[in-house]
Prior knowledge:
Radius of gyration: 13 Å
Oligomer: single chain
Number of helices: 0
Largest sheet: 7 strands, mixed
Strand content: over 45%
Amino acid sequence: QVQLVESGGGLVQAGGSLRLSCAASGRTFSNYAMGWFRQAPGKEREFVGTINWSGSTTYYAASVKGRFTISRDNAKNTVYLQMNSLKPEDTAVYYCAADQAFGYTNYRNFGSWGQGTQVTVSS
């Protein structure tokens, strides 16, 4: 499995922006599709978006499409989640995940996970 470490979370006002990073190690990063998920207190883990191995294809949840952008730098073994126009309902712990298959939106299909980073959006 690949090891993942997220960073970049924090407190931001509504309408603001944050960029999360997820650094991978242990395996060949470019062999893995990457996903971002989030989990608010008392709620199930929710799909945010995913990116394929080369970064040429992305797919987003309807709730974040047009506001969030996923990208990756395979030379740096890092995937990013740029979050713009943040809303209080975006408040959650954000996780990155990896799997060798692309196209999954269910968290149960991802084999490797980071520890998560807290994002809090104040109104």
